[in-house]
Amino acid sequence: MRYILFPKSSILLLILVLFVSADFRTQSTQSEQTPFRFAVSFVETSIKQPLDGRILLLISADSTKEPRHQIEDGPKTQLVFGVDIEGLKPNTEVIIDSKAFGYPIQSITQIPPGEYYVQALLHRYETFKRKDGHMVKLPMDRGEGQQWNEAPGNLYSLPKKIKINPLAGGTIKVAMDKLIPPIQEPKDTKYIKHIKIQSKLLTEFWGRPMYLGAHVLLPEGFDAHPQARYPLAIYHGHYPADLDGFRPEAPDPNLKPVYSDRFKLEGYNKIEQQEAHNFYKLWTGKEFPRMLVIEIQHANPYYDDSYAVNSANLGPYGDAITYELIPYIEKQFRGIGKGWARFLYGGSTGGWEALAAQIMYPDEYNGCFAACPDPIDFRAYTVVDIYKDLNAYYLESKFKKTLRPGHRDYLGHVSATLQDMNYRELALGTKSRSGGQWDIWQAVYSPVGEDGYPKPIWDKVTGQIDHKVARYWQENYDLRYILQRDWAKLGLKLEGKIHIYCGDMDNYYLNNAVYLMEEFLESTKNPYYGGEVKYGDRAEHCWNGDPTLPNAISRLRYNSMYVPKILTRIEKTAPAGADLKSWRY
């Protein structure tokens, strides 16, 4: 074999030519490569008209259930990316690329290469022309309680297993050809009745028919005592498909046990059925007070309930519930119909609602029992002081951004940050349209923005707080502030009516605001508030005030816990001549 020798200068030139040539080929290949993206469309089936809404691209490495049921706070969540659409026609592709905001990673380009189950869903919006002159596009509740992944009429695709490699580029097409079916209305039984009324106040505000509903639990002997008239207990909480915690049947012996990650209990579903059956036996027993108990259905375009107060963005739900729905129920089911015979209780959202309705309508109700209430003092808006802090997501520091915690267990272990929780909502919907917790607080408490949607309390991406919005929140919805500001006129109306219960290891740090509320209540004079504030040692969210039971059980006993307390309050405060006999049988 012969070797040919080249001068050093020629070798260097050859190397340079080869390098430039290779670099050119690389650039050429990259420029020709299609950027990584998804193209989502819906098939023309029963829907032929253009649609508004938000397309959600759902990607999961877990095959146990559909990706649309795997988006949550915490480490088990799978991926979601979202884009808003207007007037989307059938078979028209919507591109989801690196600009689409996602959770828990923010861009599809960050997806680790691998095999995934891919699904798309269109959460449909409709147009509202409100009384305030704004026209907004929002997802109206369709009987599911504002659950985007179960809303009837939403389009979706079945999951498909697909190889994903963002570095390879290319377009992955997903066609939505399934429609979530309507939800069946619950049926009346001997004890549970279901009512729905069109609200004049809400219909006027929203510019379309709006309804309020309720599940009514009738007392034992209701039909046999037609002359009896009953006190009313309003059990506030999230959207109930049917009345919670009441089961005439014994627990199903064939029920497959389900493990509760939260309570570390096997067969917690059987425990729930047993507790519901136990309440049925208690409710129908000879010694239990005869009352009406109702759970209200007030889902709206922003959330599964309204927070039971008037709001610039949601409308006059407080007035509609108090002056339209409650009198209708009392007339229909022989309620006493007086403020001394009406009571409020609930936990979490329901805890806030019970306390807020009592404060906003002090003469209409005779007591509230608020368990683990959503933040009742915005100096402790979970772990944020919206009046003093500059940023909701980070502790202030010159050198290091420390994320604020959002969810913990009873040992203090953090599973999600405030940024995580807000980013999940932002991926699901812009302009407070996610149907999530932070977005509904914002929708209820905020003034209306120039675009007709709730004015943000903080920038959803950066976490920077708007203190002008915070002051609006303070004047209108900070319950501790309102009580302290107006105690001279509210005190006598609320004496003995406020009862608050919270675990001192609440998962969402809600005990922080309760401490601040208690500090004010204990300082009251002329009159002293005369109620009760209690804490559960190491108890998590939904502790109801019973120190003798673990939280897994006490959270299932709201009715049996508070109805006897209501009876005690009635016996103590009923006015002269009040009906204390017709319902005591």
From TrEMBL:
Signal sequence, renumbered to the chain: none
Domain of life: Bacteria
InterPro entries: AB_hydrolase_fold, Esterase-like, Mycobacterial_A85_antigen
Name used for this protein in its record: Esterase
The species this protein was found in: Rhodocytophaga rosea
Lineage of producing organism: Bacteria, Pseudomonadati, Bacteroidota, Cytophagia, Cytophagales
